[in-house]
Specification:
The chain is of the alpha+beta class and about 425 residues long. It folds into 4 domains: about 30-55; about 60-80 and about 365-435, Beta Barrel (conserved putative lor/sdh protein from methanococcus maripaludis s2 fold); about 85-125 and about 260-360, Efflux pump adaptor protein, beta barrel domain (Elongation Factor Tu (Ef-tu), domain 3), CATH 2.40.30; about 130-250, Orthogonal Bundle (Helix Hairpins). It is built from 5 helices and 22 strands. It has a 6-stranded mixed beta sheet with strand order 1-22-18-17-21-2, with no helix packed on it. A 6-stranded antiparallel barrel has the order 4-11-14-13-12-15. It has a 4-stranded antiparallel beta sheet with strand order 3-16-20-19, with no helix packed on it. It is elongated and about 195 Å long. InterPro entries: MdtA-like_C, RND_pump_MFP, UPF0194_transport. Its main location: other.
Length: about 425
């Protein structure tokens, strides 16, 4: 019985221990693999988000091929302020042939392209109206000459007539005075009647008065005749000048070369009608040449007489100097004349054109970038600057100054040695970074 009881108690004890073990919860570990993975992923996501918001480059980007771009280095050197213009070779002097009088071309003596001497006949014109006016003027001059001669002849005749009249009056006065003096004595002696004395007195005084009147009339006639002669002489002089003018006008119907040179053009044909003042050609003086240059009106305030330039001809440089400025602006350009400062190049010909380097100022030290297509897209306000890695270029504001055909002067924004994209930005849009 004791053994059975001990066995029973042992079985009960084992059951009790078993039930006790089943009622207690089994505790799990906190830092298991799954929890560590979740926390680590969340931390990485948080770091990424913080970096995106705080440090990531949010600028717009564009991938481009660097080989298709022009990349230039910012340098420091002498900035030569000049522009390149085009000049055309012209004779130093060109004399226009304008028709002094009108008419139709009767004969064309010399064709264009030939050399002419001073005074050589080039054209012969015909104008019947001019000839008629000349004949009328000559006729009027002849009439005035006759009138002047007749007036002078009439004055001479009148002078002789007055002299004869005065001579007769003097004779009559002498006779009347003798009678008057004699009758005066007889009247004092009471020998003759008072009426006879008074009659002789009145006759004498009448003749004296008549002589005075005749002298005044003679003087007036002489003054009037002198005035008429003076007027006729003045009219005749003017008419004769008019005749001479018509004669010279007729002479101008023969067109002659005013100077010797090359008759470079003559734009008329036989039978064609020419108006007064019409240009019929020109003569080039081949003793010297000049360059006629077109310049953009943007530079008109900086161009002045004496400004220098140069151009290359047959492998040599020749200096030029502005001598004349034409201020009239046409199609945004104006013209100047430049002469050769140290002799005309040998072999140069009229009509040749050549680029000319026109200096606008003395060379100065400056930071420089080459001229490129970027300027038309940015106005020179910003450029793409390549970073030190050479893998991208970033937009940067700059300030440019003067410009010549080769370089821009950099005032702000770039350092010597930096690399800048100087080709066109047309396809880059508004992107702030270019990736290569």
């Amino acid at each position: 019985m004791a053994q059975l009881w001990n066995k029973f108690e042992k079985n009960e004890l084992e059951k009790t221990i078993a039930f006790s073990t089943m009622d207690r919860q089994i505790q799990k570990k906190f830092w298991n693999t799954q929890r560590i993975a979740m926390i680590g992923g969340g931390a990485l996501l948080a770091v990424f988000l913080v970096w995106q918001f705080a440090f990531a480059d949010k600028r717009s980007k564009l991938n481009v091929e660097k080989d298709k771009l022009t990349v230039s280095t910012v340098t420091q050197g002498d900035f030569d302020e000049f522009i390149v213009v085009t000049g055309v070779v012209l004779p130093l002097k060109t004399i226009r042939l304008d028709a002094i009088v009108g008419g139709y071309v009767k004969e064309k003596v010399v064709d264009g392209g030939n050399m002419v001497k001073q005074g050589q006949v080039i054209l012969k014109l015909e104008n019947q109206n001019l000839k008629l006016n000349f004949l009328q003027s000559e006729t009027e001059a002849s009439r005035l000459v006759n009138d002047l001669q007749n007036t002078r002849q009439r004055l001479k005749v009148e002078k002789f007539t007055i002299r004869q009249t005065l001579n007769d009056l003097d004779f009559q006065i002498d006779q009347a005075k003798d009678l008057y003096d004699r009758n005066k004595k007889l009247n004092n002696d009471k020998v003759i009647a008072e009426s006879d004395f008074m009659k002789s007195k009145r006759d004498y005084e009448k003749l004296v008065k008549q002589r005075e009147i005749t002298l005044e009339s003679s003087k007036y006639q002489e003054e009037n005749a002198a005035m008429q002669i003076k007027q006729l002489e003045g009219t005749l002089e003017r008419t004769q000048k008019n005749v001479q003018l018509w004669r010279e006008t007729l002479e101008n119907l023969v067109v002659k070369a005013p100077v010797g040179g090359l008759l470079s053009s003559i734009d008329v044909e036989v039978g064609s009608n020419i108006n007064q003042g019409q240009n019929i050609g020109q003569i080039d003086d081949l003793n010297g040449f000049k360059m006629r240059v077109d310049i953009d009106e943007h530079y008109i305030s900086r161009i002045f007489a004496g400004l220098g330039g140069s151009f290359e001809f047959n492998g040599k440089n020749f200096d030029l100097e502005i001598t004349k400025i034409y201020p009239e602006v046409r199609n945004g350009r104006f013209q100047v004349d430049m002469v050769f400062a140290k002799g005309v190049p040998e072999g140069i010909k009229r009509g040749q054109s050549s680029p000319i380097r026109l200096e606008l100022g003395k060379a100065t030290k400056a930071v420089l970038i080459p001229v490129g297509g970027f300027f038309s897209d940015t106005g020179g306000n910003w450029v793409y600057v390549v970073d030190k890695s050479g893998k991208k270029a970033q937009k940067r504001k700059i300030t440019l100054g003067r410009k010549n055909p080769e370089y821009f002067e950099v005032l702000e924004g770039l350092q010597v040695g930096e690399q800048v994209i100087t080709s066109s930005y047309e396809n880059f849009g508004d992107n702030e970074v270019l990736s290569f």
